[in-house]
Structure formats: C-alpha cells, structure tokens
Design brief:
The complex is a heterodimer. By secondary structure, chain A is of the alpha/beta class. The longest helix of chain A has 57 residues. Classes of the chains: A alpha/beta, B mainly alpha.
Chain lengths: 584, 349
C-alpha cells in the first residue's frame, strides 16, 4: 500500500477500473441531499417483525404485558445466520401477533407490538468497549451478534455471520460501500457527511477483527461533499483510501464496487472474503462502531423520505418498528395525488400496498411518487432483440435470451444462460425499447426453478422414504422369520429332537440381516451344551407342521384375495353399464 | 393509506420501438433522396406502394390472428420493413412488384412466424428474393429514368409507367433501362471479356450511370453513420460485412485479377453498403452477441462475394443475409459472452 502524502489526501483517487454496462438514470438526489438527519419524536406504537434480516427469524423472549427497557433484547437470534431484535424505546409489549410487514406481496408476519411509555428509559446497556483492540475477533463478533447488527445496504445479512472467517482471516482489504447508486436515496450521503468518524471508527474495528490493514472507501463522484469529508477525516490514517467512483448505476452493487475498486470479479456462489476482500456498507460500519464502542444495539437506522409525493422530503433517524405512515407524517405527509409508495429506490425497491407497516432494518428509503412525476409505463411490445439490455447488463448476461427462455418456460435453458447470475438491478428493463418488465420475467423464472428444485428434492425424499420403508418391511419380515426359527429351535430342543443350527444357517443364507436379528433374539438362544449334542443338517418333524400351518395361512390369504377381486369385478361390472350408457 | 403497486424497476421510458424505427427511417432518407434524384420517381412510387400494402397486410394479419392492431401498426416496424424492401426493387418495375413482395414479406416472413420479434428471416429480403426468383425479368428493370434525349420522366409519367406500362410518346423503355454495374460486368464476363474491359466499358457509358451506384453507397453510408451515432445499430455487423466483402473479393482478385472484380468495385456497387448498414443490422434476425455479430456480418460479406462471383445472380446480399439468418441461433449459442466473475480467476491488484 502506498503511503499517502498530505497533498495526496486532499484530492480523492479516481477508480481505475469499470464494470460492464450500467446506466445513469436521473438522480433526483437534490430533494434530500441537503436535508440533515433529523430525529423523530417517540411514537405511541412500534411494530417489530421477528424476521427483518436474511436467515432464520428471531425468537421472541419477552411476554405479552411485559415492560421492556430501551435497547433490551426482545427476540433472540436463533441460528448462525439470524439477528436479535431490540426495543427501540421503553414500553410494554402489548401483543405478539401477525402484522403486515413491508413486503411486495403485502404479507403479514409475526411481530412484537410495543406500546411506548414515552419515557424512553434505557435498561442495562451492553458494556461499552472504547478500547476494542483488547478484544478478540470472536468477542467482537459476539458483540455484533448481541447487538443485532445486519448489513444496512439493503441485503440485511447478519454482519456477525459475514465477518465469520472460519478460522484465520485471509482478508487484507476492507471495502466500504458509500456508492449509494440508486436514484433519490441520500441516507448514506448524509451519514458520511455528518458522522465520518463513526464510519472510520467502525471500519477500524473491522480491520482489527479481520487482521486487515487497508480500507478502500468507494463513493460515487456525485457526492463530492461526502468524499471531501471522509478524505479530511481519514487524512491522518494511512490505512484509508477514499476513492471516487464514476456515477453509474449499479456501482453500489457489492460485486460491481469490488470490480471498480480492485478489479476483482467475484463469481456467483463465491464470497469476497475468498479473494481477500470484505465489503460493508458505510452505515453498517457506523452501526458496528456504536455497538462496540458505545454498547448500543441496532434499534434505529437512517431513512431517506423523498419523492415528489412527499411535502417536505427529509432524512430521518428512524427507530426500527416506527410505522411508515408516522414517518411520512413527520415529513409533512403526502402531496396531493401521490399514488405510489416505494420502499427502497426506484430501481430495486418495491411498491408497498399500504403504509401501515413498520420501518425495518432494510428500509433505506421511502419514495412517494405522483403519476405526473413518473412516466406512464407503456404497454410492453415484442422484443426486437436490439440487445441494448445486453450492453447495459452489469453481469454480462444476455437478457434478451433469458427473457426468451423465461417467457417460453424453458427454465433449463434460462439456467444455462446464467439466470442465477442476474442481480435484478433493473438496468435491462430501464433501457428496453419494448418496455418489457424483464426483471419480472427473471424473478418468475427463478421462483419456478426453485419450485422445481423443491419438488425434485421432495420427490427424492419421498423415494428415499419409500425405499427405506421397503427395507424396513423386509427387515421385519426377516426378523419374524428368524424369531420363528428360534421357536422351531426351542421346540426342537424341548422335544429333544435334533436340528436348530441348520435352520440358523438357513436363515443366514436366505436373509442377509439374519445375524443381526439373531443377536436381537439372543435371549432365546438355547443352552450351548444342548446345541453341542446336536448334529447339523437334521430336520425335525415339528417345523414341518409349522410349515404346513404357514401354507394354510397362505391358502386362506389367497382365498380372501380372490374374494376381494371378485367383489371388485362385480362393482366394476355394475359401473360399466352406466359409463357405457353415456356413449351414443 | 393504500397504494396500487407495480414492481421495480420503475424506469423512465426514454426509448421505445417507435423511436428506434423512426431513427431508422430518418437514416433511410438520404439514400432514398439520392436514389430518387438519380433514378427518378419510380423509387418513391415503389416505396409508397410497399408501405401502404405492407400496412394493410399487417393490419389484416393481426386482425386474423386476433392481436391488437394499433400498437403493431404504429410502432413503425412495417414501414421500415417495406421501405428497405422497396429500395431493393428496380425503379422501372411494374406496380405489382412492390405490392406482391410487401404482402409476401409481411404475411409469410413476418406475421406467420409470429409478428415482430419472432421472424427468423429478414422479411424484406424474403420479399425481395421471392420476387427475384419468381419474376426474374421485371426485376432487372433498372435505369436512370432519363431518356437518351435527356428528358426525365416526371412523377405522373413514372406512375403511369408503373401502373399501366405506358411511356410518354417518343420515349422507349430500352432508352431508359440500363444494366446495373454488377449485371453489366457479369454479362461481359460471361461473354468472355476480362474484368478490365468489362469495368472500362461500364464507366465509358452514361456519365450518370458511372456514378449512381457510388453515390447511392455514399448516401446509405451517411445514413448508417447516423444510426451508429444514435445508437440504433452497433458497429460490429456493418464493419464485419464490409470486411467480409473486402477479404473475399480481395482473395479472389489476387488469385485472378482478370476474372474477378476488385475489392473496391465490390464495395461500392450493388447492395454492399446498403446491406451492411440497413439489411444485415435488422436486430430481430441478426446475431445479438458482440462476437456473434462479427461472425454473422463476416459471413454475409463472404457469401455475397461468392454469389456475385460464382452464383447465377448478379448480387448476393439478400441470399447471404438469409443464409446467415439461418445460422443465428447457432452463432448466438456459441458466442455467449463470459458472465461477470467467470472471466478471470480473481486476483487482488
């Protein structure tokens, strides 16, 4: 790593590499880029879904009616990939119930409903660790897990799991993602301008945890103030390099940013850490700083409330669980005619059905639009294979072919054309002259493939079960036979006639599992000395009688089956004339 | 508050099929104007007849197929198809050439394959080739439309000739029509002349004839540059077609320069430039991968020269395009670009 001279620190480096494709949609960031981050008053109610991260849902550990302090753990991470949830303020849990969550399908999910008492009283905090360097990586990871830290860039992947290296860390470079490439969103921009030291501190913690000594901060060059702020703040620390990234959506995609900053392409299914790289959002490292140094769990995040459908667009520090309608109200409410509310940006966000849903860890932006501010989406026309999508695709895919195969439901071909390398950035749809909802087709194809895979694994599971059942039946049969043989032997011993060893051998050759069942029926083994007097090969009279009894049973079974068959045939003959009468 | 929903992305729809088609039509203007100027009103009459027939045929087919008529008619794709097709037709041909060809192109080559975006073969070239095979004689009626006396046919006279085969008194068809350069050279060569004599006699003819093919090529080249500039087409196909023509004709010319025309002659006559920029670049029927486009275009260039030199037709662009159309699925399959992350074994710098 080159030592930075002070003069060097004044002007940012320019990213030296580029990813394929991308677009530059209208930014619309002016609405909020100069709106400082504001806090919200305490709301009467908070709704905290148990599942607001990637991985397993958290498990509630509080009771309905219980008073909880601010920052208290309400639900605990249940798995390696899971995150705890904390009380955003003090109050009483009034329900643990299904509540609508921000979801493209408008679904409801299990959530804790917290009624605030308005006192905002903090409980016993996590011990602050101002000198984090004395803590081991494992301890620090434990703290991140305790504090419920997840990636705030949008993926909400539990950070403790992301930082787990499974032993020694080979990460040499931490990449901070401050690209914020989606139009409208400015929450990371504001954070970088207002709290650069939080970010640098957080990054230092991660560098310490990973044993890395280099940190690249990638910021799109449409945020000169953020770049300047971080350059100044990091001027004394040679580990940091602030790099201006050309403004080009989706430069903020993790893999795209890594490519732009380090020229490393991380293939699908591989992790950046395998290449010695680790990428974290700037807001995530700021949260890491607060969790480690200040002992604050993740109970809030910065949300950009914007769009022409909002009276006064703002950046808010929003306690998790705040209802979106409350946040919008704090921004002056909707302008007349606002008819679309999007969580996330216009490229990758999704439209909400309803604003009576909570802000969750993934809520980076609330965007309200009026019809006149967005182009009417024209009716799709046929694909003319112009391949503008292929030129714009940051994953180097052939979207026109994927579309063709998804549309024709030839999912195997779609997979062959790397369907699962699609990051759903929406660039292809944005450039399509035929206005095809291409990303929808890919999402559809992906879910179909997943469903097929599920069916397939279900089928193979069923097959396994069936085979196992057959095996079990065979085994039981064999065991019965073995037991029967034991009885024969016992009978033979009792009547002081010869055989037994011979029959044992017979079962051993006939049924492979017989020896095991011999052991199982060990207690029925006759006295060894009695056996010793007997010659192998002799067959007594009693088993013959038993055999004839089996034969009789077989005959009876056959008779029963024949009777059943006859009955069925009769029924069929009854049905037959009716079905025939239907014929002309 | 409740909201109607729509899935992201929610892009600003700047581009559209209609915009793309309009740009192609704009790009066709210089070539069409030069062709009209050099060859007379017959060119425009062909274009108009083809467009009107094409639109009617498209509307009728969409009605039959119970597809929405309006968006397909207004997207401009039929106009582009008919226009490009009509520019291939002889300017002194009868009215039913553009009419029949446009109907065939739209009905069979486009709509029966499923309409815009689904056709395997370039419809304009299908229409042209059907006429070429079915009506060889009318398809040779090229000429400067200027009488030996120097009097050009005006619009009504051209229309009368196209519709009824009536020429103004004192003007003979033979005086109007002249073999195209490629036709001329082919005739001369089959008559045993050397290529030198053949081209020399060609350029000793009428002064207009001397240059009309050249000027047409220049005009279409300008239109092609416009399309490149506006991002309607990519550079790969035209460059590859031209390279294919130059490489193949250069090879033959080096082998035997008395039997084969020079690469420059092949480049500037016939439909080379027009085909490279306007025909081969039809996105629906061309390859869509960057490498595939190079292969596709190069193949067209090579086959064009081979047909011109050894086939039984004076020009081969249309056949070459159709043959390469056939190969597109194969080309596309084997020239998929490397997907992100699969290009290199990642290494930090």
């Amino acid at each position: 790593m080159a030592k930075m001279s002070p003069s060097h620190a004044r002007s940012p480096q320019i990213a030296r590499f580029a990813f394929h494709g991308g677009i530059h949609p209208p930014e619309h960031k002016d609405l909020t880029r100069d709106r400082p981050i504001k806090s919200l008053p305490i709301m009467p109610h908070y709704v905290l879904p148990l599942h607001m991260h990637i991985g397993a849902p958290a498990r509630a550990i509080v009771q309905v009616g219980q008073w909880v302090a601010k920052g208290q753990v309400l639900a605990q991470a249940t798995d390696f990939i899971s995150a705890s949830i904390h009380a955003p303020t003090s109050g009483v849990i009034i329900a643990i119930t299904e509540h609508p969550i921000p979801h493209p399908g408008g679904l409801a999910a299990a959530a804790l409903i917290l009624e605030a008492d308005g006192e905002d009283r903090a409980g016993e905090p996590l011990p602050p660790w101002p000198d984090f360097t004395t803590k081991s990586a494992t301890e620090l990871r434990g703290r991140l897990r305790e504090a419920g830290i997840v990636g705030l860039g949008g993926a909400v992947f539990p950070t403790a799991a992301k930082l787990a290296t499974g032993g020694t860390s080979s990460v040499h470079t931490l990449v901070l993602n401050g690209a914020e490439c989606e139009p409208y969103i400015t929450c990371d921009d504001r954070l970088m301008r207002e709290r650069p030291e939080d970010i640098l501190h957080g990054a230092a913690i991660v560098l310490h945890m990973m044993g890395a000594n280099r940190c690249l901060i990638g910021i799109e060059d449409n945020k000169p103030e953020a770049i300047a702020t971080l350059l100044t703040a990091s001027a004394q620390d040679t580990r940091f390099e602030t790099i201006a990234v050309p403004t080009r959506y989706p430069a903020g995609g993790e893999k795209q940013l890594l490519k732009v900053l380090t020229n490393v392409e991380v293939p699908r299914g591989r992790r950046a850490t395998e290449y010695g790289l680790l990428c974290l959002n700037v807001a995530t490292v700021a949260a890491i700083y607060r969790a480690v140094v200040l002992g604050e769990p993740m109970t809030e995040r910065i949300v950009t409330v914007t769009g022409e459908g909002i009276v006064q667009p703002e950046n808010f520090r929003v306690p998790l669980g705040t209802k979106i309608s409350d946040v919008i109200a704090a921004a002056g409410g909707y302008t007349a005619g606002a008819d679309r509310l999007i969580m996330g940006g216009p490229m990758m966000g999704f439209a909400l059905h309803d604003d009576e849903v909570p802000v969750v860890k993934a809520t980076n932006c609330l965007l309200a639009l009026r019809p006149q501010d967005r182009p009417t989406t024209p009716a799709p026309q046929p694909c003319i294979r112009c391949s503008l999508c292929a030129e714009a695709c940051p994953a180097d895919l052939l979207p026109q072919q994927l579309y063709w195969y998804a549309r024709a439901k030839q999912f195997d071909r779609a997979v062959e054309y790397h369907l699962f390398d699609c990051i759903e950035c929406g660039v292809c749809s944005a450039v399509c002259p035929s206005h095809l909802p291409l990303v929808d087709f890919y999402r559809f194809a992906k879910t179909e493939v997943w469903a097929q895979e599920r069916d397939h694994s279900k089928a193979s599971l069923a097959r396994e079960r069936f085979e196992f059942r057959n095996e079990r039946l065979e085994r039981i049969k064999a065991e019965r036979e073995a037991a029967l043989n034991k009885k024969r032997q016992n009978l033979a011993v009792n009547t002081a006639v010869a055989p037994s060893v011979a029959t044992g051998m017979d079962t051993a050759t006939m049924v492979p599992s017989a020896p095991a069942s011999d052991e199982a029926f060990g207690e029925y083994r006759p006295e060894p000395k009695a056996l010793g007097t007997q010659r192998p090969g002799d067959v007594g009279t009693e088993p013959v009688i038993l055999d004839s009894a089996v034969e009789a049973a077989c005959v009876r079974a056959k008779a029963r089956r024949a009777a059943l068959d006859a009955e069925r045939a009769q029924q069929e003959s009854k049905l037959a004339p009716e079905s025939k009468s239907d014929l002309p | 508050m409740r909201f109607p929903t729509h899935t992201a992305p929610l892009p600003e729809a700047e581009n559209s099929v209609r915009r793309v088609m309009t740009l192609v039509l704009l790009a066709l203007l210089p070539g069409t104007m030069v062709a009209t100027w050099l060859l007379g009103w017959g060119v425009l009459i062909n274009v108009l007849l083809a467009i009107v027939t094409g639109l009617l045929a498209e509307a009728a087919m969409l009605k039959i197929r119970t597809r929405p008529v309006r968006p397909a008619i207004t997207d401009g794709s039929v106009i582009v198809l008919a226009w490009i097709f009509a520019l291939c037709l002889p300017n002194l041909g009868p009215w039913w050439l553009p009419v029949f060809g446009a109907i065939f192109a739209v009905v069979v080559a486009k709509q029966l394959y499923g309409g815009l975006g689904f056709n395997l073969f370039n419809p304009a070239m299908v229409g042209y080739v059907v006429l070429l095979i079915s009506f060889p004689e009318p398809m040779t009626r090229w000429g400067p439309a200027i009488d030996v006396s120097g009097a050009a046919l005006n619009f009504t006279q051209s229309l009368a000739w196209s519709l009824n085969g009536i020429l103004p008194s004192g003007v003979g068809y033979d005086g109007l029509s002249v073999a195209t350069p490629l036709d001329h050279v082919r005739e001369q060569l089959t008559a045993g002349a050397t290529i030198h004599n053949a081209t020399a006699s060609l350029f000793n003819g009428s002064t207009l004839l001397q240059s009309w093919n050249l000027w047409l090529s220049v005009a279409f080249f300008v239109g092609g540059l416009f399309m490149l500039w506006r991002g309607v087409i990519r550079w790969q196909i035209p460059i590859a077609v031209i390279t294919g023509v130059l490489v193949m004709s250069g090879f033959l010319w080096l082998l035997d320069s008395t039997k084969h025309a020079s690469p420059v002659f092949h480049l500037l006559t016939g439909a080379t430039i027009f085909g490279a920029f306007f025909v081969a670049t039809d996105p629906v029927t061309a390859s869509t991968t960057p490498r595939g486009r190079l292969i596709f275009g190069f193949g067209i260039g090579v086959i064009t020269v081979l047909i011109r030199s050894f086939g039984s037709y004076p020009d081969g662009v249309a056949f070459a395009v159709l043959l390469m159309n056939l190969c597109v699925p194969l080309i596309d399959y084997y020239t998929q670009p490397k997907v992100f992350g699969h290009k290199q074994a990642g290494k930090a710098r």
